[in-house]
Amino acid sequence: MVFTTPLKSNSIKIMLLGSGELGKEVVMEAARLGIETVAVDSYPHAPAHLVANTAHVVNMKDREALLEVIRRERPSFILPEIEALSIEALEDAEKEGFHVIPNAEAVKKTMNRKNIRDFAAKELGLLTSRYRFVKSLEELQAAAGEIGIPCVVKPVMSSSGHGQSIIRSEAELNRAWEHAKEARGDASELIVEEFIPFDYEITLLTARTEKETVFCEPIGHHQEDGDYVLSWQPMAMTEATLQKARHMAKTITDGLGGRGIFGVEFFIQGEEVYFSEVSPRPHDTGMVTLITQSQSEFALHVRAVLGLPLDFVFYGPGASAAFKSRQEASVPVLDVPDTAFAKNSFIRVFGKPVSHVGRRMAVALVFDEVEKAKNRAEEIVSLMNG
Ligand SMILES: Nc1ncnc2c1ncn2[C@@H]1O[C@H](COP(=O)(O)OP(=O)(O)OP(=O)(O)O)[C@@H](O)[C@H]1O
Ligand SMILES: NCC(=O)N[C@@H]1O[C@H](COP(=O)([O-])[O-])[C@@H](O)[C@H]1O
Ligand SMILES: [Mg+2]
């Protein structure tokens, strides 16, 4: 295939809205192609700030402040990297001719569980857990009665498990209500979901341009308190189940449209495949692709954004384990065991300027058969301190 890359021009500029660990890798992939990068987040010295050409600190929920930085920088592409940002600013920017990835409407739908759930279940007919939306403790009690216990309660806008609870008895509803309200993000409304006792869950990374859609091998993962701790690739699945998940991932990503990579999350129970949610950006569980693929999810995202071919090689199985800080520190220092540097392993330290208990600070990656890779990755993070 012959293609003309836009890379001959040095005028391409990518702006990341959100500058965490995922954005940092995106910035580095863009830099490898000679593209100028601008990283924006609400606090200084965020991971992607450390590697981008230009760094800005902006209140991400402030429509005018976000628009001002977009107008000033005039990026070729705007890549939202977090959910909690001013969607109005993205809509305004798109109207002014800026290219939002994948598009402002898709970002709006996916940032709010209400929009994406109704879109997937009602408009596209995808199988999901049963769900209700509630705005008061009384409505929560009623919804839990209808959906049944156990059920899962989450703010309509949140990520990495913030504000999420699994309800195992009626007595836990008050606490779940309080917990959701304390979370960052938008907890003015909550979703109550049927608890799916799944056999396993996966992220199906799906990259798309106007020309093609490609799927990565399915990624299995373990979550604790709604946040990822371990992921591995490939997750062993029957061909029929994988095809079902791919078909559903194609339906939802075509429904959202635009260019970029999507992390499509599914619960698998027997032969049933439940759509859970989708990120219109690289996914934390997909960090494993840093060691398993010739083009990681971050490289694929950049290629998709630029409209380049999405070919890549799956090198073989591997695993990733998240290191979460065990202390509060204003100058975090991480101790990393030598095993992290063994010939089939490496570590990515994000460089977050401050640590909190439970904040993800680094990820250990191991290239090996899945079970061995999982064990080794877990062992590395268990031996870490910081
Ligand atoms: N209905 C459910 N049934 C069973 N488990 C669930 C359900 N909803 C969520 N979970 C568990 O909680 C995890 C986090 O949920 P979800 O992905 O909705 O939250 P999140 O905060 O958006 O996470 P992230 O932003 O990190 O992807 C899921 O990966 C799954 O392990
Ligand atoms: N599940 C979403 C996710 O993993 N997002 C990643 O975490 C960062 C925020 O980290 P912080 O909360 O430690 O600042 C985000 O910027 C993004 O890179
Ligand atoms: Mg999720």
UniProtKB/TrEMBL annotation:
It comes from the Bacteria. Its EC number is 6.3.1.21. Mg(2+) binds at residues 265, 277. Keywords: ATP-binding, Ligase, Magnesium, Metal-binding, Nucleotide-binding, Purine biosynthesis, Transferase. Coiled coil: none annotated. ATP binds at residues 113, 154, 159-164, 193-196, 201. N(1)-(5-phospho-beta-D-ribosyl)glycinamide binds at residues 21-22, 81, 284, 352, 359-360. PROSITE patterns: ATP_GRASP. Pathway: Purine metabolism; IMP biosynthesis via de novo pathway; N(2)-formyl-N(1)-(5-phospho-D-ribosyl)glycinamide from N(1)-(5-phospho-D-ribosyl)glycinamide (formate route): step 1/1. Belongs to the PurK/PurT family. Involved in the de novo purine biosynthesis. Catalyzes the transfer of formate to 5-phospho-ribosyl-glycinamide (GAR), producing 5-phospho-ribosyl-N-formylglycinamide (FGAR). Formate is provided by PurU via hydrolysis of 10-formyl-tetrahydrofolate. PANTHER family: FORMATE-DEPENDENT PHOSPHORIBOSYLGLYCINAMIDE FORMYLTRANSFERASE (PTHR43055:SF1). This is Formate-dependent phosphoribosylglycinamide formyltransferase. It comes from Desulfobotulus pelophilus.
